[in-house]
Design goal:
heterodimer, A: 419 residues, alpha/beta, Aspartate Aminotransferase, domain 1, Aspartate Aminotransferase, domain 2, 7-stranded mixed β-sheet, 14 helices, 39% helix, 17% strand, B: 148 residues, alpha+beta, Sufe protein. Chain: A, 4-stranded mixed β-sheet, 5 helices, 4 strands, 19% strand
Chain lengths: 419, 148
């Protein structure tokens, strides 16, 4: 079955996508006898050869533990690891590389802030403000610390299109609000939040602002100084880097004041049985041997995306999104969940009364990989009264042909279900 | 390559479109709620067990994919009139079929065999077994069960 003709012109942005695709070995494979059409990038992105080679090279040639040995390999590894920290600093336009803490991912970064900052600063009756579109990883850590401290979690609502109701957010941000924690880009709806404005509102009420950048970091240039936020978290694996590595950026005076999250090697200054003192940040928050090669791989991924250019990636994906919106509008029975004014990176949809899991299985048999489920955002599903959605999410290597393949596969779903 | 038609047989579409014994059951003696956190599927299973220990009536309600709805619908047809022990034996036999494991005892699965294709689709096993885990929970007297 072929996709309907499109009126949109065939040129896409300034990216040479065909050339870039050759950098990603995973994309060249067939699944179930068909060329892979990978549209599950919001879950995780594939890795360019530069990342794979960096990981291979450092394990094979320059691997040792960091910040410990006086030997040559340890010096090489430490240099590469700290070099990756500098790359992350530049990527976020952070003022100081000592503000970059390597963690396992966005989830751990938010847990670190909730447990360490929240545990030390939240008092009974204090409030934490999140939005209705948050991922579980920006809800549950706050629920845990609220339970521990007696603080209260408040939730700013969204409208039917998936826009945050900023005036409601402002109304809910009060004198008891100590921190607001918001996603920059919703993984379930694709909504881009007006983060700068939300940070201003938080600060005007004396609250801190944490930004969940898990989805945003791969899709748009990020500048933590321009955003004005206090904490920024993102994951390596969605940014074409390895799994198990992510970043917490926080303003230095906050990191200085925050108690350690985990204890162990590396994070101490001095240890006696009577008591211990802590190393300065970021070491204070990096107990134990870190994911050295993960960080180096993330550094390689950052080099890669900066080489391609985040502006160009964002432009390319905007065009893909516009093309997908138009193509999906022609599929009978398909309803987009999330039609916010500002969107990026993904389309989330339901399809007649066909369950997203059935959609996902049939698409998979056409070689099209999408996510079907609640996207770790059950409150969003509850908000729209659906158990789950299907989600197609884009990366720099996706093409209009990928979206055509998605649409053709959706027609196959319809015909199988006799619609 | 596993064929999609092995999974989505006509019988399954039929039970998905027109689930049998769908709705709340008044006067149920056993009831349990099953939940699949992976996909958000949720169903409630009701049993009415008579004094002779046989399942006089059975019904389910909830939301799920074609596989889980058809599986629940087929379950209700299969266990009606059986003793709880017989229903549990069906559960074990069905589970063994879906997991592609040897059944410890001979079990006549009858039309439940239309779901045999699920074993080729590991991501969908929990869809097919949700209703059966819920049945098991209802018989055991648990009120809630999750597939995780």
């Amino acid at each position: 079955m072929s996709a309907p003709e499109r009126s949109v012109a065939a040129t896409v942005g300034a990216l040479d996508v065909e050339r870039l695709r050759r950098d990603f070995p995973a994309l060249a494979q067939e699944v179930r006898g068909r060329p892979l059409v990978y549209l599950d990038n919001a879950a995780t992105a594939h890795k360019p050869r530069a990342v794979l080679e960096a990981v291979q090279h450092y394990y094979a040639r320059e691997y040792s533990n960091v910040h410990r040995g006086v030997h040559w390999l340890s010096e090489r590894a430490t240099e590469a690891y700290e070099g990756a920290r500098e790359k992350v600093r530049a990527f976020l336009n952070a003022p100081d590389r000592r503000e970059i803490v390597f963690v396992r991912g966005t989830t751990e970064a938010i847990n670190l802030v909730a447990a360490s900052w929240g545990g030390a600063n939240l008092r009974p009756g204090d409030e934490v403000l999140v939005t209705e579109m948050e991922h579980h990883s920006n809800i549950v850590p706050w629920q845990l610390v609220c339970e521990r401290t007696g603080a209260v979690l408040r939730v700013a609502p969204i409208d039917d299109d998936g826009n945050l109701l900023v005036e409601e957010f402002e109304r809910l941000c009060g004198e008891r609000t100590r921190i607001v924690a918001v996603t920059q880009l919703s993984n379930a709806l694709g909504t881009i939040n007006p983060v700068r404005r939300l940070v201003e509102i938080a600060h005007a009420h004396g609250a801190l602002a944490l930004v969940d950048g898990a989805q945003a970091a791969p899709h748009m240039p990020v500048d933590v100084q321009a955003l004005g936020c206090d904490f920024y978290a993102f994951s390596g694996h969605k940014l074409y880097g390895p799994t198990g590595i992510g970043v917490l950026w926080a303003r230095r005076e906050l990191l200085e004041a925050m108690p350690p999250y985990q204890g162990g090697g590396e994070m101490i200054r001095q240890v006696t049985f009577e008591g211990s003192t802590w190393a300065p940040p970021p070491a204070k928050f990096e107990a134990g041997t870190p994911h050295i090669v993960g960080a180096i791989g993330l550094g390689a991924a950052i080099d890669y995306v900066r080489g391609v250019g985040l502006e160009a990636i964002a432009r390319h994906e905007r065009e893909l999104l516009a093309y997908a919106d138009e193509a999906l509008a022609e599929v009978p029975g398909l309803r987009l969940i999330g039609r916010a004014r500002e969107r990026a990176g993904l389309v989330s949809f339901v399809f007649d009364d066909i369950h997203p899991h059935d959609v996902g299985t049939i698409l998979d048999h056409e070689g099209v990989a999408v996510r079907a489920g609640h996207h770790c955002a059950m409150p969003v599903m509850q908000r729209y009264g659906v158990p789950a959605t299907a989600r197609a999410s884009f990366a720099l290597y996706n093409t209009r042909e990928d979206i055509d393949a998605l649409v053709a596969a959706l027609h196959r779903v319809r015909s199988m279900f006799g619609r | 390559m596993s064929d999609l038609r092995d999974l989505y047989q006509e019988v399954i579409f039929d039970h998905n479109r027109n689930p049998r014994n769908f709705g709340r059951l008044e006067g149920a003696t056993h009831r349990a709620e099953g939940f699949n956190p992976l996909c958000g599927d949720q169903l409630t299973l009701y049993l009415k067990v008579g004094e002779d220990g046989r399942i006089e009536d059975v019904a389910f309600e909830g939301k799920g994919c074609a596989i889980s709805t058809a599986s629940a619908s087929l379950l209700t047809e299969s266990v009606r009139g059986r003793t709880l022990e017989e229903a549990e034996r069906l559960f074990r036999g069905f589970h063994a079929m879906i997991m592609d494991e040897p059944a410890g005892e001979p079990v006549e699965l009858g039309k439940l065999e239309v779901l045999a294709g699920v074993k080729e689709f590991p991501a969908r096993v929990k869809c097919a077994t949700l209703a059966w885990h819920t049945l098991h929970a209802a018989i055991e007297g648990q009120e809630q069960v999750s597939t995780e």
